C-alpha cells in the first residue's frame, strides 16, 4: 500500500490537492469563512451529511468509550458514507478492469490494484480519514495561529513567498505552487518544523505495551530496564522542549522558526525529535509525505493570496484534545484579499 500513499501509483495526487486548494481559496474569497469550519466539503461550505460532525462526535465518544472500555459507535455516519463511496468505486474498478482500462490513478485505485477489497478496503479508507484529516487540519490551524500571532514570522514568510514568485521560483497566481517548489522555501519549511515542535498534531496517544517479562533498551548509550506489562506513551510536548536536544540556552517555549536555519550541530537530532510526531519504524505514518505536501502548499497559498488576523486574540479558538487529536472550532479570522497579489 505504500505505493498508493507515497504517490508512486497515485498519479493524480498533486492535481487532486491542487483542485481542493483552488476550491478552498475560492471559498475564502467569495464566502468568507473562519478556520472553525473550512475542512472538506469545499463546494458548499456546509456539512450536509454531517461528515465532519460525525468525525468529531466519533472522537468525543471514543474518548469516553475507550476510558470505559466499551465499543465505539461515534464514527457511524462517517464510516457509512465512506463505505457507500468505497462500494461504488469498487464496482467501477471491477467493471473497468474487466474491460481492460482502469481510468483513475488515485490512492484507492492503487489499493484495489494490489488486491485490497471489500471490508479491508473500507477499513483502510476509514482509518485513513481518521488518521489523515484531523491530524493535518489540527496542524494547519496550529500553524496559522502561530504565524498570524507573530508579526516577525508573518512578514518574513510573506516576503519569502513574494520573492519566490518575483524570481520565478513559484508560479504567478492563480496557478498553485508545486510541492517540489515549496520544498525549496527554507523559511516556510522551518515554520512547518517549528509548528510540529511546539504544537504536535497528536498528543498523549500511541501507547505501546512492554512484553510481560519486561525488556532492556539502550537510551543515550545506557541500558535501561523496562518492567513488563506497562504502557509507554510518548509525551511529544515535553520531548519537543527537551533542552538536551535543542540546547541548554534554547528558548524552547517560544515559537521561533529561525532555530531550524541557525542550528548546525544539533540539527539532525532536532529533526529526528520532531519526526517522531509521525511515528517511527514499522509504525511510521503512511501519509507523512501527503501531509507535508498539503501543509506546505496550503500555507504558501493562504499567505500569498490573503492577509489574516484573528477576530478574538484573547480567545482564538475552542480547543480540546480528543483521542490525542486537536478538536478545534470557532477559530474566527478576518481575511483580506492582498492588494498586490503576487
Ligand atoms: C500532520 C499530519 C499527520 C500526523 C502528525 C500523523 C501522525 C501519525 C502517527 C504518529 C502515526 C502512527 C500511529 C501509531 O504509532 O500507532 C500515523 C499512522 C498513520 N497515518 Fe498519519 N499523520 C498525519 C497525516 C496523515 C495523512 C494525511 C494520512 C493519509 C492520507 C495518514 C495516514 C496514516 C495511516 C494510514 C497510518 C497507519 C499506518 C499503519 O497502518 O501502521 N496520516 N500517523
Automatic annotation (TrEMBL):
Transmembrane domains' residue ranges: none
Organism listed in the record: Xylaria hypoxylon
InterPro entries: Cyt_P450, Cyt_P450_E_grp-I, Cyt_P450_sf, Cytochrome_P450_monoxygenase
Protein name: Cytochrome P450
Keywords: Heme, Iron, Metal-binding
Cofactor: heme
One Pfam family from the record: p450
A Gene Ontology molecular function term of the record: monooxygenase activity
Domain of life of the native organism: Eukaryota
Amino acid at each position: 500500500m505504500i505505493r498508493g500513499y507515497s504517490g508512486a501509483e497515485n498519479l493524480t495526487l498533486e492535481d487532486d490537492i491542487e483542485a481542493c486548494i483552488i476550491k478552498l481559496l475560492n471559498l475564502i474569497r467569495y464566502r468568507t469563512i473562519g478556520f472553525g469550519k473550512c475542512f472538506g466539503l469545499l463546494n458548499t461550505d456546509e456539512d450536509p451529511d454531517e461528515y465532519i460532525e460525525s468525525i468529531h462526535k466519533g472522537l468525543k465518544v471514543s474518548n469516553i468509550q475507550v476510558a470505559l472500555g466499551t465499543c465505539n459507535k461515534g464514527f457511524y455516519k462517517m464510516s457509512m458514507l465512506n463505505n457507500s463511496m468505497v462500494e461504488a468505486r469498487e464496482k467501477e474498478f471491477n467493471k473497468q478492469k474487466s474491460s481492460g482500462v482502469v481510468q483513475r490513478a488515485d490512492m484507492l485505485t492503487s489499493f484495489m490494484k494490489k488486491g485490497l477489497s471489500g471490508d479491508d478496503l473500507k477499513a483502510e479508507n476509514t482509518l485513513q480519514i481518521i488518521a489523515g484529516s484531523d491530524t493535518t487540519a489540527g496542524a494547519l490551524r496550529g500553524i496559522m495561529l502561530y504565524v498570524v500571532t507573530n508579526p516577525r514570522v508573518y512578514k518574513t514568510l510573506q516576503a519569502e513567498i513574494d520573492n519566490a514568485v518575483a524570481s520565478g521560483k513559484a508560479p504567478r497566481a492563480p496557478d498553485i505552487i508545486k510541492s517540489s517548489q515549496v520544498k525549496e522555501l527554507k523559511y516556510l519549511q522551518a515554520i512547518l518544523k517549528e509548528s510540529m515542535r511546539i504544537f504536535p498534531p497528536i498528543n498523549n496517544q500511541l501507547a505501546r505495551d512492554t512484553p510481560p517479562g519486561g525488556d532492556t533498551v539502550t537510551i543515550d548509550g545506557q541500558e535501561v530496564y523496562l518492567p513488563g506489562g506497562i504502557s509507554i506513551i510518548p509525551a511529544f510536548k515535553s520531548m519537543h522542549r527537551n533542552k538536551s536536544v535543542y540546547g541548554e540556552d534554547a528558548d524552547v517555549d517560544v515559537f521561533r522558526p529561525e532555530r531550524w536555519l541557525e542550528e548546525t550541530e544539533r540539527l539532525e537530532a532536532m529533526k529526528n525529535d520532531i519526526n517522531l510526531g509521525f511515528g517511527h519504524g514499522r509504525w511510521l505514518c503512511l501519509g507523512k509525505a501527503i501531509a507535508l505536501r498539503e501543509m506546505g502548499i496550503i500555507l504558501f497559498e493562504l499567505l500569498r493570496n490573503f492577509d489574516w488576523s484573528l477576530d478574538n486574540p484573547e480567545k482564538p479558538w475552542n480547543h480540546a484534545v480528543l483521542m490525542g487529536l486537536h478538536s478545534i472550532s470557532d477559530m474566527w479570522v478576518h481575511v483580506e484579499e492582498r492588494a498586490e497579489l503576487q
